[in-house]
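Example 3.2
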Amino acid sequence: MPYFVYSLFSLVLLTTGGVAVANGLVNPSKAHHYPADFVQSYNQECLQTSMGEGLEQTEAKTLCNCTIDEFQRQYSLTEFQQLTAASATDKAAETALVEVGQSCFEQILYEK
């Protein structure tokens, strides 16, 4: 599981292109809506990676939907891009992203 979560984290880095540094940006009080093309691209990459890690298509879709929904709930698109950029050098930013993936992955495990 740690390898999968790390891979999910890598996917997040690949599908976003932010360059600014984030400092604990979380806004749980309202959901944000990312552009449809961003969500579609994220989901395509996420599905490929998740299925490559051994998840079946249904599980992969559930995981990808969960993660993008949670990222939209917690972060504006700019905040999310900043967080992913910062995660390359900022352990707290990395942990914030990995925790979302891990939480969603655990939901899939417990639904079975």
